[in-house]
């Protein structure tokens, strides 16, 4: 199928727009969840949305998307608020509260889903698609609902930007300024529940947690400011969502929801590996350079101490002796020190058999070695 045909396909257009909306709201709100160290909050609320989906279906008697999503929002938000109450009014840690709420809510959802399936209601067909998503079933009316929810979330973030920023980084200071920290946390939690609701149709209950976390984690590797992180997370979410949707359309038979998650997750892997200053590759290079620099410094200070011990600034140190002292070959380190003008070759003393050359500190080498030892606070000979 050509790109032009993709643009004219009704189902693919709906899926792509829905995926873009999901990526946008997930990237923006997921940034606050990651910074508040509540990455599992999206997982909890997505699983807690399943009972709401079932309750909404029971009330409507059919797959009325508006009522179903309202039920999902209600139970997801309630589960998150229960978690907040448990952690604030008991000795439970956040992870324990999230685990209890997640497992209990999901168990209730599975029981209700089984009950609905035993009702022999013809309208319940496809209801279990909310577990893993069914993007192809997205209708234009569903997009209006998703778009409205996304717009509400973005307006709230814009209106309360300073407050959300302060609560995310320093809630204690925010409380000292008289801000309603508890209510701000409740609003943030409900907004994350909104993001979960938007993603139920696209990626489902099980995979929605990754959509909340992944764009923010990737953006965090590239940005040092909240503004940049939120915008980049939104771009990553939208790009990954649309790419996964298009890839699913081009590859018939592959589920859209998992492809969207894989697309965003691939950006996370690249970011974790290659992000400047934070990626694993750069960290490995930095560690390698640090070890090499330390090896050079050890050889240089060894030459300096030997010279001080023998009261001879131009004391000649033989290569084999240095190798034995450090337990490894030091020729590479000495060559690098020689290039920097810190050491130089000298002929062996006339009375030494073999006439092998030796290493000697230069004046610059003496000064550099003394500076290194002084910075380490070590006493000289």
Automatic annotation (TrEMBL):
<feature type="transmembrane region" description="Helical">
    <location>
        <begin position="230"/>
        <end position="251"/>
    </location>
</feature>
<keyword id="KW-0408">Iron</keyword>
<keyword id="KW-0406">Ion transport</keyword>
<protein>
    <submittedName>
        <fullName>Metal ABC transporter permease</fullName>
    </submittedName>
</protein>
<dbReference type="GO" id="GO:0043190">
    <property type="term" value="C:ATP-binding cassette (ABC) transporter complex"/>
</dbReference>
<keyword id="KW-0813">Transport</keyword>
<feature type="transmembrane region" description="Helical">
    <location>
        <begin position="257"/>
        <end position="281"/>
    </location>
</feature>
<comment type="similarity">
    <text>Belongs to the ABC-3 integral membrane protein family.</text>
</comment>
<feature type="transmembrane region" description="Helical">
    <location>
        <begin position="66"/>
        <end position="86"/>
    </location>
</feature>
<keyword id="KW-0410">Iron transport</keyword>
<feature type="transmembrane region" description="Helical">
    <location>
        <begin position="12"/>
        <end position="35"/>
    </location>
</feature>
<dbReference type="InterPro" id="IPR037294">
    <property type="entry name" value="ABC_BtuC-like"/>
</dbReference>
<feature type="transmembrane region" description="Helical">
    <location>
        <begin position="143"/>
        <end position="161"/>
    </location>
</feature>
<keyword id="KW-0812">Transmembrane</keyword>
<feature type="transmembrane region" description="Helical">
    <location>
        <begin position="98"/>
        <end position="116"/>
    </location>
</feature>
<keyword id="KW-1003">Cell membrane</keyword>
<dbReference type="Pfam" id="PF00950">
    <property type="entry name" value="ABC-3"/>
</dbReference>
<dbReference type="GO" id="GO:0006826">
    <property type="term" value="P:iron ion transport"/>
</dbReference>
<dbReference type="GO" id="GO:0071281">
    <property type="term" value="P:cellular response to iron ion"/>
</dbReference>
<dbReference type="GO" id="GO:0010043">
    <property type="term" value="P:response to zinc ion"/>
</dbReference>
<dbReference type="GO" id="GO:0055085">
    <property type="term" value="P:transmembrane transport"/>
</dbReference>
<dbReference type="InterPro" id="IPR001626">
    <property type="entry name" value="ABC_TroCD"/>
</dbReference>
<keyword id="KW-0472">Membrane</keyword>
<keyword id="KW-1133">Transmembrane helix</keyword>
């Amino acid at each position: 199928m050509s790109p032009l045909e993709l643009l004219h396909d009704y189902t693919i257009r709906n899926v792509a727009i829905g995926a873009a909306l999901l990526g946008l709201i997930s990237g923006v709100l997921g940034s606050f969840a990651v910074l508040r160290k509540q990455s599992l909050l999206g997982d909890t609320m997505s699983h807690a949305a399943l009972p709401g989906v079932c309750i909404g279906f029971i009330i409507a008697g059919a797959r009325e998307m508006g009522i179903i999503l309202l039920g999902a929002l209600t139970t997801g938000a309630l589960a998150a608020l229960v978690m907040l109450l448990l952690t604030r009014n008991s000795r439970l840690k956040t992870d324990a509260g999230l685990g209890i709420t997640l497992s209990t809510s999901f168990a209730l959802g599975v029981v209700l889903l089984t009950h609905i399936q035993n009702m022999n209601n013809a309208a319940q067909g496809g209801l279990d698609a909310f577990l893993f998503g069914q993007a192809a079933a997205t209708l234009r009316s569903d997009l209006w609902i998703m778009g409205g929810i996304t717009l509400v979330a973005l307006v709230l973030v814009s209106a309360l930007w300073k407050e959300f920023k302060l609560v995310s980084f320093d809630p204690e200071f925010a409380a000292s300024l008289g801000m309603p920290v508890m209510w701000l946390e409740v609003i943030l939690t409900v907004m994350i529940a909104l993001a979960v609701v938007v993603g139920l149709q696209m990626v489902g209950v099980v995979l929605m947690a990754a959509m909340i976390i992944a764009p923010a984690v990737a953006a965090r590797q590239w940005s040092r400011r909240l503004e940049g992180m939120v915008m980049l997370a939104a771009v990553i979410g939208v790009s990954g969502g649309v790419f996964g949707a298009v890839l699913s359309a081009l590859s018939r038979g592959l589920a859209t929801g998992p492809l969207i998650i894989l697309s965003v997750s691939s950006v996370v892997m690249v970011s974790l590996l290659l992000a400047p200053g934070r990626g694993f590759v750069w960290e490995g290079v930095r560690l390698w350079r640090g070890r090499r620099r330390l090896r050079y410094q050890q050889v240089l200070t060894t030459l300096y101490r030997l010279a001080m011990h023998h009261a001879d600034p131009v004391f000649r140190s033989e290569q084999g002796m240095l190798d034995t002292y450090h337990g490894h070959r030091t020729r590479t380190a000495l060559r690098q020190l020689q290039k920097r003008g810190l050491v130089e070759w000298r002929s062996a003393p006339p009375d030494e058999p073999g006439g092998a050359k030796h290493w000697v500190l230069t004046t610059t080498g003496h000064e550099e070695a003394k500076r290194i030892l002084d910075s380490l606070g070590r006493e000289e000979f």
